[in-house]
Amino acid sequence: MKELIAIISSMNGEERLAFHAFAKAKNRRSDVKNITLFHLLEKGVTTGLAEKIYGKENHNALYALTKRLRDSLIDFTTSHSLETESDEEMQILKSLLASRIFFEKGLYKLGFKTLKKALQKAQYLELYALLNEIYHTLLQYAHKDESIELPLIIQDYQENLKNHLAEAHLITAYASIKADLQHTSQDVEEVIARHLKVNDIKLDSSFGYKSLYTLMTIAADAAGIKTDYYSASHFMEEAYRIVSAKKDLASRHLYYHIAILNLMSMTHFRNKDFKKASVFLDIMKAQLEQEKGKHKKTFEESYIKLRSLVAIYTGKLNDGITQLDHIKNPSPESQLAAIMAHFQKEDYLKCSSIMRDLSHSNDFYEKRAGFIWVIKRNIIEILILIERNQPDLVESRMRSFNKKYKKRLLDKNEIRVLAYLKLLRKYYDAPHEVTTEAFFNTVEKSFNWIGVEREDIFVMTFYAWLKAKMQSRPLYEITLELTAM
After folding, report:
1. 231: Cβ contacts below 8 Å, ≥ 6 apart
2. Whole-angstrom distance, CA of residue 222 vs CA of residue 188
3. CA distance 286 to 299
4. 131, 123 contact by CB (below 8 A)
5. Rounded CA gap, 40 and 44, in Å?
6. Fewer CB within 10 Å, N- or C-terminus of the chain?
7. 23, 210, 382, 423, 481 from 444: Cα distances, Å
8. pLDDT digits (tens, 9 = 90+) for 20-78
9. Mean per-residue pLDDT for 271-287?
10. Are 211 and 166 in contact (CB under 8 A)?
11. What is d(CA 40, CA 117) in angstroms, rounded to the nearest whole number?
């Protein structure tokens, strides 16, 4: 049952409607108990399910129904992904699978024709992992076509293996860097450089778009773990210089080009370079319209969220809020961005309203949005409760936060988060002292300030609330003042 609830919880509104239609079409009888169970679990009903569905206790029937619904959801997830996936890789994979079916049925001419199309597309897009599977299939059935020049196929296959191995080294480096950053105080760029050297990876023009995207994802993820986009920005710029030199190949790798533009705009935003972030967003917008907007659905939410955040931090708070509020079926990341935006407007009732929609557990959100997101969500919730003067809840949330996350934050060397919570406690216990010189000195001693250029924009945003209290000034005014470059 837990698996089933987890699957349903992970589905957005559009996916739930699509599943309802999928299940209804699949049901051969008038019996729609699987849909009834789905709707009950969707509404959070987890007790008395047998009585609600069968009118009496029937654990065996409920168990069988639960299994059927789980299997149906897995089938839906697979088929829905294949139907909605517009990425070139999925189309090539479909062709590869189709060719194998044709070969198994003895339709060799059609099999080779289908496989050849997949091969050409995969070569064009430099998709080495898929090419590996294509060459496996081609070599397996090569004896069925006398026109195939086997030595050339073997040579191409071996050349592709080298490229595939290079990509494997990238994945190894990616995993090692993420693991290392959990336990080191080194800058992001230093950690990346060390692991690239260990894996004999050099950042140069030999990398294709997909590999460059992987490298840049490594840097962006590492920066997110350490909340240090400043030290990752040099590496990102170097990688993008190579991307720019390959601009004539951009249309060939549209998906990865858009993904790279998204990473660059996000990195510049986090480093408070709003002008550069806007430039990349403008390019990204134009690319989203290419090929009849085939990748718009994948990237549109991220684009809108970044565009709105740039607006918020450049003095256009209402514009930014409007954009965030119009995102359909927002992700937890967009919902949290909306909460922080309304918090800047000091609309705490609206903040609470959106916070109620984030109704899953911290563990659920950590798996989906990451540890840092969970920490930010908990802190902003405490700030909202302080502003709404709900002392019992403030006390409860602070105690719960320390119990659950203090050790992990210490292990990750995130002592500034704990220092911030102590200051919140000090302020809440004695708000009249916040404007005193003694409180100011406590704040100065509590943080290891790393300078305006290096400091992450969201860290500064949380500090802005404290400074606004210390100076008795509007929060948004202080936020703009602190994050202006």
Report:
1. 187, 188, 189, 190, 223, 454
2. 6
3. 12
4. yes
5. 7
6. C
7. 59, 45, 22, 11, 18
8. 787 777 765 555 788 888 888 877 788 888 888 888 888 888 888 888 888 888 877 76
9. 95
10. yes
11. 46
| Joined tokens for residue 220 | 């962006």
pLDDT tens readout for residues 347-400: 999 999 999 999 888 888 888 888 889 999 999 999 999 999 998 999 999 999
The letter for the amino acid at 109 is K
Whose tokens are 């249309």? That residue is 251
Residue whose entry in the numeric block shows the structure tokens 């954009």: 323
Question: Could you report how far apart the first and last alpha carbons of the chain are, in Å?
Answer: 51
In our burial notation (b when 16+ CB lie closer than 10 A, e otherwise), range 107-121 reads: eeeebbebbebbbeb
Closest to 181 measured CA to CA, from 169, 170, 193: 193
Residue carrying the six token digits 């406690």? 425
pLDDT band at 87 (very low <50, low <70, confident <90, very high): low
| Inter-residue contact 428 to 420 (CB < 8 Å) | no
155 CB-near residues (< 8 Å, 6+ apart): none
HEC states along the chain?
A: CHHHHHHHHCCCHHHHHHHHHHHHHHCCCCCCHHHHHHHHHHCCCCCCHHHHHHCCCCHHHHHHHHHHHHHHHHHHHHHHHHHHCCCHHHHHHHHHHHHHHHHHCCCHHHHHHHHHHHHHHHHHCCCHHHHHHHHHHHHHHHHHCCCCCHHHHHHHHHHHHHHHHHHHHHHHHHHHHHHHHCCCCCCHHHHHHHHHHHCCCCCCCCCCHHHHHHHHHHHHHHHHHHCCCHHHHHHHHHHHHHHHHCHHHHHHHHHHHHHHHHHHHHHHHHCCCHHHHHHHHHHHHHHHCHHHHCCHHHHHHHHHHHHHHHHHCCCCHHHHHHHHHCCCCCCHHHHHHHHHHHHHCCCHHHHHHHHHHCCCCHHHHHHHHCHHHHHHHHHHHHHHHHHCCCHHHHHHHHHHHHHHHHHHHHHCCCHHHHHHHHHHHHHHHCHHHCCCHHHHHHHHHHCCCCCCCCCCHHHHHHHHHHHHHHHCCCHHHHHHHHHCC
